[in-house]
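We emphasize that the prediction below concerns an isolated chain of 395 residues; any contacts that depend on oligomerization or on bound cofactors are therefore not represented. The input was used exactly as deposited, without trimming of termini.
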Amino acid sequence: MQKQIFCKLLYILMMTLWTVSMVDIIIKNEKPGSILHGTEDQLLFLECILDGVNTGETIIWIRNGEIVSEGRHGYALYSFIPTKKDHLSEFSCEMHDTLKGNIKEKVITLDIKYKPMIDFNLTEESFFIKGETKTLCCSSDSNPSSATMWLKNLKVAEVVHYKTNVCLTLMNISDSDSGKYSCLAENEVGFSEQEINLNVLYPPVFVEEHKIIQFGKLGEHMKIKVIAHTISSIECCHIEGENRRQKPPDIEIIHKNTTPLVPDTDITTKELEITFSFTVLQTSDFQKYKITVCNHDGNSSCIVELKPMKTEFETPHALDFDVNLLSLLTIILLVAVMVFVFLTRKRNTRHNASRVTEGITEFADGFPIPLNHAPEKDMRNVKRGGETSYSHVWC
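Result of the prediction step, given as a token string:
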């Protein structure tokens, strides 16, 4: 009898072990390759199911050696909101027997989709020297791959590339390269944007507002003024004349205003008025001067000539030419008028002489008198019967 009972118990045990060995673990939504897909910031469910006889044993979810969820009756559930860091992490579902240890397990790998993460090879505020060549690189970490592009001041500076690293090369950097540069990356999950401000540093720039030739009066106070633009602070400023004047004039630098170099950024340029004051102008002060201004990034120079003012307002060369031309035309016109008057008077004189000659000829025809007596005679007109006769009265 005892032998029969023992045999039945042994049979039950053997059947149980055989049944357990036939149990299969199923993970819901598992893809080929033991992959489970998810998306960052969206709730993800990990469901482990025993496909077979329900033995009532414990089923657990394990991550990095730690139990994160526990279930019974052939079912275990673990839910959480994944992030980029959970991508490619592993979870293990185990059917656990407290007496015999682990009986069966299955491991899955998470494939988490996440929007691009952007990184630059430069700091957010970068300074370049004028004339340099620099490369801006934007790297994008995303799953799946993202389309990446460069923008400068909201305009496309580099076409779209489906790769993790997109670089923009700036050659022979100039003032126009200053601005706000943005890197945009986008995939099916979302998009990311990151900006850097690029400042191009250059020496001071003289503007055309100042006059190359300036005028002053001998013995009076005089100021030479020039205008310059700069990004960084002025570090030196001096003036040098052709004759190497021993006592330099007083120098004053006035900050006129600040202008944004690039809209919607902190990049600005300063407008400076630089004044060189002469207390009393001397003859030796009238010459050409080389004005040099420098900052941290270099120096610039301009030439200004100081001339004596002969009149209240110095007549520009162009105006002198116009006045001389007008004077010449006036003289030519006057000469032409004088010649015309002279010729007219000469012609009138000849005409009058011709008329006198004709009158004398007519008189001689009516009264033939010797020419040598004509000056001694007085001619009078006498009217006789309606006719005009000539009588001669001797003095």
